[in-house]
Design brief:
It is a single chain. This protein has 2034 residues and is of the alpha+beta class. The protein is built from 72 helices and 37 strands. β17 and β18 form a beta hairpin. α52 runs antiparallel to α53 and α59 runs antiparallel to α60.
Length: 2034
């Protein structure tokens, strides 16, 4: 560091200097729940095992911390911690979208009126200058707007303004990234602590019976019926009054406060609905059966008075005497079950598995919940809900009103479970169990975390424990139904004794009321009874003896007693349980004692040195026991003299169960043996030693220990886990401690290591144990983190003579020097030979144990049980001994590394599979080693031996190759590989803090090379390396490791050995040629900034890669960079701007990478496709489908792809390649990184860089900024929780609909769909590859985390995201300013200007905060001032957009925004006037903008806009400089125009609800602009947009066709190209209406006039764009034939431009259109038409007007009628509107003048016969329609219907003004013709129709039997009313009298002839179609047909002779044939006519 310049040195220092060590070894005291730790009793010499256990439980945790964990950790979590109040520091940003919310209702609520309709027609919009603008008040004006300031000063001011008040940390505003990728977060393991299940607090409130006569005692416990297990110990309590307590005074020597508890905390680990709380009640023993004693309780009631009072008094006296005499004995009385089902409510049980697991160590909280959840948990203290206990569970009071009487012969637990099972089934017991009325009230609640004043099961007070509290709460020990895998952390040593049954049935008569006295003895003398039995309620805390309850007169009683004993820490062979059996005489006999002895039994506590537990059946000795009885078990007592007298001849008659709950006794043989053998090694023991039932001599010790190491893993999992900490400690001790056994040095390293490996394996493989998100077993993780410490040297190594060195502590003995020397030479040999023979390495002498002990313990105070490791400095260690002696001592880390390297086979496999565990052990032991070392020897390079480094290198290589090998295998191994990869990364991460960094960097390099050499799959490779690097980069010294302060030109290559040797010059001397390369990933950069270089390389590779699943990898890559930057940004060490500048410089190459990835970014502009707001490019519909980044699709439509000068660079600059698109979130994360760099980098540097960039690159930057704008658009508050889910849903629906439509072959957007499907721009990138719609694919991912956010949270979120949007946009603005300033010197500024404007306009079209808008408008004004001329000359198009956006903001409701916008607009006009008199063009653009704004924006407010116009007027009037020019008057004229357009809008507002009227108005407005093509075009587009919204696609398309015709007219005037359409004439095939557009004649418009036709659409590409859009809409509307006509105009233009790509897609679309025609055939639906007439003066202009309305296909008459009636009903009041039901002509005189009448009639298109020749297809019959017909039936009498012979019909034909489809959906009727048909003509028409129906049904392909039968039935069915037969009988029965009717008669007769022929064909056809079951039906049809034919024959055959008279005579024989031929001719005519 010698020559770093001072600033850099300082920075480096601040960020955590290198030389300091990062790892800190800290001792933290263990948290203890109780006031005093639980310890064995004082003054006992403990066994080594017990001592070790206690030591383990009370010693401090040893934790290795990273000193500066600040950066990575705190930053990671800064967001949650201090972020809580972070939002309070933010300013609220105002957004118009939100300020509007308040105002909206007022505009909507206005009632609608139609009365204005009448005025509209008269006024053209340009005259309607409704009222004078001057009458308004102008807004606040900007002060210095009109002062002359130089452009530079202006820019400077703007910049200063922008710089103030900015948010320092960008990332603090950005939602933190999904944790799924956050591999670098190493969860801190849970601290090992005592296991507590779900805790329930039970308080006993009342216990009383009908009569109160004696003391009663309750005991409460939990039982699980399903598991048939008692799951808690007993809780004893009583609620006796002082009076009753007095009865017992003689028997209670003292009352301990702890025995007065009335509330207990039960713990349940596995909640279920089968848990019952059982309350048992006992009373003092008295004479009589239980039933007799309970009798009074059932019979007498306290309140009865009189006699019962006396009885009660008597009973009380009786009770008192029993209490005095038998007070220490109890008898069973009653019991009551309470189900806890409702407490462990059902919803909890559903979660039982997961949550319970988390309680049991099956899952430490961090696991299976993402980190964020666990963080949330820690933020609010774990409430009950987390614990799986009744979530909404408040406190419940349970009341029991009746108790079950205890049955003397059914007291055992077995019986209890039977009772409970019955009770569960029927909630009452069988009849024979009597019940006793009483009252028990319990309060049950879930126990709070902290309960004041409670006692543990050992009676230790729990913190907090106030002094003065009388009644404590007791914690009740749980007996879980299944294993609980939580290691012991407190000393607990309890024994539970359960006497169960005694069988004295055959015994002498005296044994009837039997009790057992139970004692815990430490010897055989009566005085040896130990006071270790826990007392019951209201008595002493500990007792020496306890008596069981008595069943009256029962010789073989059952017992339910539970005796709880506190076991002494040191047990000997003398300890035993003594049972003494007595008969108690209840009656008082003179002189007889109460107790008579029946016998004894006993149980030794130890058997073979281990605790005896389980069930026993003991014999009973009937007389005094012989001496030394306790040495043997009762069953195996050797023969005595005199012999012992046994009951039942030494058979077992007494059943008992003993259980221990102990954290000292392992109760597992393997563990027991292992511990015993270890202790025999450590301490001086006499051989042979006894282990369980075998004796072990000194010689076999080594063998046995190795055996026991091998067997260790076969012990049961539960005890292994319970004693895990101790077992591992011992194993590690063994691995480094050289043992001398019988004079031989034994080495257990390898065995111990293998044992550790197998334990790790079995813990990881157990299904019951939790793992964290990196797959690490939680128990092991917490062991390494908290418990593990370097193994200590042995306390007393065995002496073997030789000199003892003088040492500070005489307890450490060493070998003689000679042997030590020999050993070290052996070691050297071993080194030379190989390091693979562990036994050789192990032959260390103990010579260096002294050093070891001094080093590892730093002055351990051995007198205390605890370790006090704290020590001040090293002064207490003589330095001479502290110097490490080379190679003569085992260090744990070296041993461990060695064992890892030399392991083989399965062991090796497991070691690397769970490498994380061994890595963490290595790191922790290395850290302790370094910590204990002498600080002077602190060069990292010499800290660790070379051999150790070799081992580490080997290990890293092996893990890398293992990982690679796994990745090549099938999928399921991948996860394992990922875990190994992550563990390796963490290992190297830790090594960076401990070892020489150059060494570690080399390891990293090896890793990267090795992986790429072995992996073929690029994605896997990138993904692995990414996770690896991400972890390394999260290192807190990451920045220093990357030499971020080094200069570009002087830094040395890295991986660097150390830094001291480097020199560096000042950073500011950037050489210009280097500037450009700073933004690229150069080899020099990668050498110098090693890790960052690697990371960037991966990112670039990921962005460039292809393939399945790539987007996941890309997400990972981006998220890695993002989290890194975010951690710097929030790192308290990096607050200073100068530090941030340096850091940003380190990340500059990222900018290059992002620019290269430009085509892959998700395009937010397209995705938004906002309705209403007109985007910067093209109209909305164009947007909808595209999502590839190319703005050029849009620009092309807008008319820009033939002059690529502006921003078309992208198309030409990028090779046409299908890129893999990034999804929205990845893109957003990448963007925020880009913005961060741009914000924090040195601005002058950025300008230099920009100045050197080629314009193509610059355009790329602008494109990037363009996307950024849309990417960080503010989404609004409400959206933050609704949008995300809706957006998600919507986009999926859209996609699904599209795909479906496409597959079905119909469909709107075939083309769009293909655009979406092209691999390069999958619009919804997520769908294709990861169908788990990850939560982060929604907008800000805020919603899904927690649906029910509070309002405050939503506000806070909105506040933060508002600030983010503002800050992001300001950074973009800064960047644009940089570009403008840097490039103002260059020549390419014109194209740049366009790009900058595009970005600005885009940002103006997003929802922006007022803060941003102020700055944005300021920048715009600066631009106008600086480049005005350019702006108006070159950037015509941008200018138009700009006008529109600025105007939009002029109508803003926010005052500041309005005043900014007005000022900007005014300047725009002023400069355009000043420039080259471009004012005309700007006027035109402003007018058009307003027109389109008015037409499109729904939220548009004209009052505000009027006020803005007034403000602009004020500017014009005050602008002294311009007064001399015509400018002010022109401005006024323009404003007046604008005002009149506004007037139209007000009108439009009023018709908002009446779509037809609205379209009429828009149509009229458009028409009034006949002379102003630009505006007419705008209005046509507005109409198209409105139509599209209403799904009238055909009309929308027609509007665009008209627009295109307009453009064509203009283009043909301008230039005469053969390929262009010749004006609107060329459009006739599309629609005959288009000729209207030719009204633009040369005299009204000269296209050269300035400002006219200057819009983007008046170009060839604009024309193509309009037509393509129209074609798309036609295709959506189903008019595929028209699509063809439209493309006929487009194709020549495309061919002329040689645009083959477009041609491809055009032909593709054509093919689709033709396909649709073929596939849909007759199924196509076109419109339905209705005639609507309006009558009544209320309608104003509409009165007596008739229209034809076009409605969607299959609209029924009632639908339209309901709609119109409803609408006009709202306008005039429902009572005034009436629908005329018939279609007869309306007689105006008969109508009520106060009402409005609507007449609606269904009409059909009408064609003359000649027309039918041309209109062949269904489409032709529905297109270009101008004539419609409806029929009205009538009779001459005036009724509508009559008999056949009097039924007339009126056919009315209407002609409309234009042909349908047109630009609107209703067209007025201009002509009406009527024809009346006589009855016979009506009959002819009907018969023709019927015949035609038959013909169609017969010829249908494929044949439709149902249809055919239906038509047939209607034709030949017998009962058809007014059917064919009746018609024939009426009209054909006789020849008419009137010759005029002959023709008709004949025509009808011929009709019938054809009809009957068709019927015949139909019957035949039906015969072929029917199934077997329709035979009868066919017969019937046939019969009817024959009948009909017979009936008709005479009439058909009768001809009218007059009609057939020959015209000239011929031979008679020829006549016949003539006749026939004429007949035939007539027929053919007939069929044609039909």
């Amino acid at each position: 560091m010698t020559q770093l310049n001072s600033l850099d040195a300082e920075l480096a220092q601040e960020l955590g200097d290198f030389t300091e060590d990062d790892l800190d070894v800290v001792f933290t005291p263990k948290e203890c729940r109780t006031l005093q730790p639980s310890l064995p009793e004082e003054g006992v010499e403990l066994d080594p095992h017990v001592r070790d256990c206690v030591q383990t439980y009370i010693r401090e945790w040893l934790i290795v911390n990273q000193k500066n964990q600040g950066s990575s950790e705190i930053c990671g979590f800064k967001k949650t911690g201090s972020r809580r109040d972070f939002h309070k520091t933010l300013q609220k940003q105002t957004f118009e979208s939100e300020s509007l919310e308040g105002h909206e209702p007022s505009t909507q609520a206005r009632p609608r009126h139609l009365n204005v309709l009448c005025d509209v027609s008269g006024k053209g919009p340009l005259t309607a200058c409704g009222f004078d603008l001057r009458s308004l008040q102008p807004d606040q004006q900007l002060e210095n707007l009109l002062q002359q300031v130089s452009a530079e000063d202006f820019e400077k001011q703007n910049e200063e303004a922008r710089r103030t008040n900015r948010q320092a940390e960008l990332f603090a505003l950005y939602p933190s990234v999904d944790e799924e990728d956050a591999v670098e977060i190493r969860p801190v393991p849970e601290c090992p602590k005592e296991h507590l299940g779900n805790r329930i607090l039970v308080k006993v409130l009342t216990l009383k019976f009908e009569i109160e006569i004696e003391p009663l005692f309750a005991s409460i416990a939990l039982y699980d019926v399903k598991e048939r297990k008692k799951i808690s110990e007993n809780f004893h309590c009583d609620l006796n009054s002082d009076q009753f307590k007095g009865f017992l005074r003689a028997h209670t020597p003292s009352v301990a406060p702890s025995s007065q508890a009335r509330s207990a905390v039960f713990s349940v680990t596995y909640p279920s609905s089968d848990i019952y709380l059982v309350v048992k009640i006992e009373k003092v023993l008295q004479q009589g059966e239980i039933g007799d004693c309970a009798e009074p309780y059932m019979v007498i009631k306290e309140g009865d008075g009189g006699k019962s009072k006396e009885k009660i008094e008597k009973l009380k006296l009786q009770a008192e005497s029993f209490c005095q005499r038998l007070g220490k004995y109890r008898m069973p009385f009653a019991w009551a079950p309470i189900s806890l089902t409702s407490f462990f409510n059902v919803s909890t049980l559903d979660r039982e598995v997961t949550d319970v697991e988390s309680m049991v160590g099956r899952s430490s909280v961090g696991e299976r919940r993402t980190l964020s959840q666990s963080r949330r948990l820690s933020e609010r203290a774990l409430s009950l809900e987390e614990n799986g206990v009744g979530s909404n569970y408040k406190t419940t009071t349970m009341t029991v009103n009746s108790f079950f009487k205890q049955e003397g012969d059914r007291l055992s637990d077995e019986d209890l479970f039977k009772f409970l099972a019955d009770y569960k089934r029927s909630s009452s017991l069988q009849r024979r169990v009597k019940s006793i009325p009483g009252l028990l009230r319990l309060e049950i609640s879930s126990a709070p975390e902290i309960i004041s004043c409670s006692l543990t099961p050992e009676m230790l007070p729990v913190k907090p424990f106030p002094e003065n509290r009388t009644r404590p709460h007791k914690e009740i020990l749980e007996f879980p139904i299944r294993e609980v895998y939580v290691p012991h952390t407190v000393y607990r040593n309890l024994l539970y004794v359960y006497p169960q049954r005694l069988n004295f049935a055959n015994k002498l008569a005296s044994a009837r009321n039997i009790t057992i006295k139970i004692q815990f003895m430490c010897g055989e003398d009566a005085s040896d009874a130990m006071p270790v039995i826990f007392g019951k309620s209201s008595g002493p805390e500990f007792l020496q003896e306890i008596y069981t309850a008595i069943t009256y007169h029962n010789k073989s009683p059952d017992f339910y007693e539970e005796v709880k004993i506190k076991l002494p820490a040191k047990l000997t062979v003398n300890h035993h349980l003594l049972f003494t059996f007595y008969h108690i005489s209840c009656q008082q006999k003179q002189g007889a004692s109460v107790e008579s002895l029946l016998g004894y039994s006993w149980l030794p506590i130890l058997l073979n040195e281990s605790l005896q537990t389980g069930s026993y059946c003991l014999p009973v000795a009937l007389e005094k026991l012989p001496p030394n009885y306790s040495m043997h078990s009762a069953e195996k007592v050797p023969l005595q003299n005199p012999p012992i007298k046994w009951a039942e001849g030494h058979k077992g008659v007494f059943n008992i169960e003993v259980q221990a709950v102990s954290s000292v006794h392992t109760q597992d043989n393997h563990l027991e043996k292992f511990f015993t053998l270890c202790h025999s090694l450590e301490s001086q023991v006499t051989f042979p030693i006894r282990v369980l039932d075998q004796k072990i001599s000194e010689t076999s010790l080594e063998h046995e220990l190795k055996l026991s190491l091998i067997c260790l893993n076969s012990s049961r999992l539960e005890p292994l886990v319970l004693f895990l900490h101790l077992v591992l400690d011992k194993l590690f001790q063994l691995s480094v401690q050289p043992m001398v056994i019988a004079g031989q040095t034994a080495n257990f390293s390898q065995f111990a290591f293998e044992s550790v490996v197998s334990i790790a394996n079995s813990l990881h493989n157990s299904k019951d144990l939790a793992k964290d998100q990196h797959g690490r077993n939680c128990l092991l993780a917490s062991y390494v983190h908290y418990v593990f410490r370097l193994p200590e040297p042995p306390r007393d190594p065995p002496k073997t003579g030789g000199a003892t060195a003088a040492l500070p502590d005489p307890r450490y003995h060493t070998y003689g020097r000679t042997s030590a020397a020999a050993v070290s030479s052996k070691l050297l040999q071993a080194r030379v030979m190989s390091s693979s023979n562990p036994d050789l390495v192990g032959t260390h002498s103990a010579a260096d144990e002294e050093v070891k002990s001094i080093m590892s313990s730093k002055g351990v105070d051995r007198t205390c049980n605890r370790m006090s490791y704290y020590c001040s400095g090293n002064n207490d260690v003589p330095s001479s001994t502290a110097a490490p002696r080379p190679a003569s001592k085992k260090h744990f880390h070296e041993e461990l590394a060695l064992q890892m390297v030399v392991s083989t086979g399965m062991v090796r496999e497991t070691v690397f599979k769970y490498a994380w565990f061994f890595f963490e052990l290595l790191v922790k032991s290395m850290a302790q080693y370094v910590h204990n070392m002498d600080k002077r020897d602190n060069f990292r390079r010499t800290r660790f031996s070379d051999r150790f480094k070799d081992d580490i290198t080997t290990i890293v290589n092996v893990v890398t190759s293992e990982t690679a090998a796994l990745l090549v295998k099938p999928q399921k191994e991948n996860e394992q590989a990922e875990k190994m990869n992550i563990s390796l990364a963490f290992f190297l991460y830790d090594l960076l803090s401990l070892m020489d960094r150059g060494f570690v960097f080399n390891l990293i390099k090896h890793y990267c090379n090795q992986l790429s050499a072995k992996l073929t799959n690029l994605l896997t490779l990138i993904s692995m390396r990414l996770e690896f690097l991400r972890i390394l980069c999260s290192h807190e010294h990451y920045l220093n490791l990357n030499l971020f302060f080094m200069n570009a030109d002087t830094a040395p290559a890295s991986p660097c050995p150390s830094i001291s040797s480097q020199n560096s010059s000042s950073c500011s001397s950037f050489q210009d040629q280097k500037v450009a390369s700073m933004f690229d990933l150069t080899p020099e950069y990668r050498q110098q900034h090693f890790l960052t270089g690697l990371l960037f390389t991966e990112l670039a590779a990921a962005l460039d890669a292809e393939g399945e699943g790539i987007s996941k990898v890309q997400r990972k890559a981006v998220s890695a960079i993002h989290s890194l930057l975010s951690s710097h940004d929030l790192d308290p060490r990096c607050v200073k701007p100068e530090v941030k500048v340096k850091i940003a410089a380190l990340y500059l190459p990222l900018v290059g990478i992002i620019l290269d990835a430009l085509p892959q970014l998700y395009d937010f502009t397209a995705a938004d496709a906002r309705s209403g707001k007109n985007r910067a490019n093209g109209s909305d519909e164009d947007q909808e489908g595209t999502s590839a980044i190319n703005q050029n699709v849009a620009l092309a439509i807008a008319g820009n792809n033939f002059n690529l000068k502006t921003s078309g660079t992208m198309l030409s600059s990028l090779p046409y390649k299908q890129y893999n698109m990034l999804n929205a979130d990845t893109t957003r994360n990448l963007m925020i990184c880009f913005l961060w760099i741009m914000k924090n980098a040195d601005q002058s540097l950025i300008r230099k860089w920009i100045a050197d960039l080629p314009s193509m690159q610059l355009n790329r930057i602008l494109d990037l900024l363009f996307i950024c704008v849309s990417c960080f658009e503010y989404k609004g508050k409400q959206s933050s929780d609704k949008v995300s889910t809706q957006v998600l849903q919507k986009s999926r629906d859209v996609k699904a609909r599209l795909e479906e439509a496409l597959l079905r072959g119909e469909g709107a957007r075939g083309e769009m769909m293909r655009r979406c499907r092209a691999p390069g721009n999958d619009r919804f990138p997520g769908l294709s590859e990861n169908l788990r719609w990850r939560k982060e694919q929604t907008h800000w991912r805020q919603a899904n985390e927690k649906q029910d956010k509070t309002k405050a949270e939503l506000d806070q979120e909105a506040l933060i995201s508002g600030n983010l949007a503002t800050e992001a946009n300001l950074i973009i603005l800064d960047m644009q300013e940089n570009i403008i300033q840097a490039s103002s010197a260059l020549d390419c500024k014109d194209s740049l200007l366009g790009g900058v404007l595009r970005v600005l306009v885009n940002s103006l079209s997003c929802d922006q905060s007022t803060t941003y808008l102020t700055h944005c408008f300021a920048t715009l004004r600066a631009l106008i001032a600086k480049f005005g001329d350019l702006l108006f000359e070159e950037e015509v198009e941008q200018c138009a957009d700009l006008c529109q956006r600025v105007l939009h903001h002029c109508s803003s409701s926010v005052d500041s925004t309005r005043s900014q916008a007005c000022a900007t607009l005014y300047l725009l006009m002023r400069f355009s006037f000043g420039a080259t008199s471009n004012f005309a063009r700007v006027k035109m653009q402003v007018t058009m903008s307003l027109a389109s704004l008015v037409g499109k924006a729904p939220d548009f407010n004209e009052e505000y806009l009027r006020r803005s116009l007034r403000t602009i007027l004020a500017y014009a009037e005050e602008d002294t400089a311009m007064q001399a020019t015509p400018f002010p008057t022109q401005v006024e004229e323009l404003l007046c125009n604008l005002n009149s357009i506004l007037y139209d809008t007000v009108k439009m507002r009023e018709f908002q609800e009446d779509p037809e009227m609205l379209m009429d108005l828009m149509y009229r407005i458009a028409k009034s602009y006949q002379t102003s093509p630009d505006l007419r075009l705008t209005w046509l587009q507005n109409m198209a947009e409105k139509h599209t919204k209403k799904k009238c696609y055909t009309e929308a398309a027609m509007c665009l066709v008209h627009a295109a015709a307009l453009v064509a007219e203009y283009l043909s005037m301008l230039e005469d190209h053969s390929y262009l359409p010749v004006g609107s004439v060329s459009f006739q095939n599309i629609s005959s209406n288009v000729l209207e557009e030719s009204a633009v004649s040369d005299d009204t418009l000269s296209p050269d006039e300035d400002g006219v036709c200057s819009g983007r659409y008046f170009t060839e590409s604009g024309l193509v764009g309009l037509l393509e859009h129209a074609a798309e809409l036609f295709s959506t509307g189903g008019l595929y034939e028209t699509v063809n006509e439209v493309y006929k105009l487009v194709i020549p233009i495309l061919e002329a431009h040689r645009d083959f790509r477009k041609l491809t897609s055009t032909h593709d679309k054509l093919q689709k259109a033709f396909d649709s025609i073929i596939s849909k055939g007759h199924k196509r639906m076109f419109g339905t038409y209705f005639r609507v007439g309006f009558y009544g003066s209320k309608f104003g202009d509409l009165d007596e007007q008739e229209f034809v309305y076009k409605e969607p296909a299959i609209t029924k008459l009632p639908e339209i009628s309901h709609r119109l009636e409803g609408f006009y009903g709202q306008c005039f009041g429902e009572e005034f509107v009436e629908v005329i039901k018939d279609s007869a002509p309306v007689d105006k005189t008969k109508l009520d003048p106060n009402k409005a009448y609507i007449q609606i009639t269904f009409v059909e298109p009408y064609f003359d016969e000649y027309e039918m020749k041309d209109r062949v297809t269904y489409f032709e019959k529905n297109f270009n329609l101008r004539r419609f017909m409806y029929t009205t039936p009538f009779t001459l009498e005036g009724r509508p219907r009559g008999e056949l012979h009097e039924q007339y019909r009126r056919n009315t034909v209407l002609t409309t003004m234009h042909a349908f489809p047109y630009v609107k959906t209703r067209i007025s009727v201009i002509q009406k013709e009527e024809f009346v048909l006589t009855p016979i003509e009506v009959a002819i028409e009907d018969m023709k129709k019927k015949t035609l129906q038959l013909a169609v049904a017969i010829n249908q392909e494929p044949p439709d039997a149902k249809m055919l039968q239906m038509v047939l039935q209607g034709s030949v069915g017998a009962t058809v009313n007014q059917g064919p037969l009746e018609v024939a009988q009426v009209f054909l029965a006789e020849i008419p009298a009137d010759p005029k009717l002959y023709r008709h008669h004949n025509k009808l007769r011929l009709c019938f002839k054809e009809f009957i022929m068709r019927c015949g064909e139909a019957v035949e056809k039906n015969k072929r179609l029917i199934t077997a079951d329709q035979r009868e039906y066919q017969q019937e049809l046939k019969k009817n047909y024959y009948k009909l034919r017979e009936n008709l024959r005479p009439m058909i055959e009768r001809k009218i002779p007059e009609l057939y008279k020959p015209i000239f005579r011929v031979e008679s024989q020829k006549r016949d044939s003539f006749h026939r031929s004429s007949f035939r001719k007539c027929e053919t005519q007939l069929s044609q006519g039909s």
